[in-house]
Design brief:
Blueprint: E1 5-12, H1 16-25, E2 32-40, H2 42-48, E3 54-62, H3 64-75, E4 86-92, E5 105-113, H4 117-126, E6 131-138, E7 147-148, E8 151-152, E9 156-165, H5 166-177, E10 188-201
Antiparallel strand pairs: 1-3, 1-4, 2-3, 2-6, 4-10, 5-9, 5-10, 6-9, 7-8
Helix pairs in contact: 1-3, 4-5
Length: 207
Amino acid sequence: MNYTWQLHTIVNHGLGERIARETREAGARGGTILVGRGSAHQTILQLLALSDVEKDVLITLVTDEQYEAVLHAIRNSKTLNKKNRGILYAIPLCGGKQMSEESNYELITIITNRGYADDIMAAARKAGARGGTILHARGTGTEGDATFFGITVVPEKEQVLILADGKTASNIKKAIASLPCLNKPGVGIMYATPVASFEQLGNGQGE
């Protein structure tokens, strides 16, 4: 099967499995749920009803044919309402229609050794970020193993996901790249991916 889109749905912890079930009913073959923590100004958290710290990041691969039906299922999920909100965006994969939908948003991904995520988010917020999601991860090697793109492969990692519009994304990337704590070679990597269909979920349509 030729998957052409990667859908990311970020919701409060515990809701990912319910939404995954609804996407399967809409034609998706399955999904992967990563558990992380949200990081945003308290006022923003209250505004979006995203005050729970733990988050589910549901990753769903779909084809061009499945894309609209699965998007519709997530947008109209009975799991999401004024209390339980989230965000949705799509990343085009090779071989599909690519960015047939215009979007001015980027997903900034930073992978670093554990302990730097909060400093990264502090710098990102000063540069205009409204928030982000921090995932805990493990490397695939041990101390003394070979390096990958200049990063020593060690077990403890943090992955920071920040969604921002184009102009703000540029400022955020510059702010993160200039952090003194990240000046040491091999501390981490950062890359940005264009996204489509970015939207906030949960405007009261659920029960």
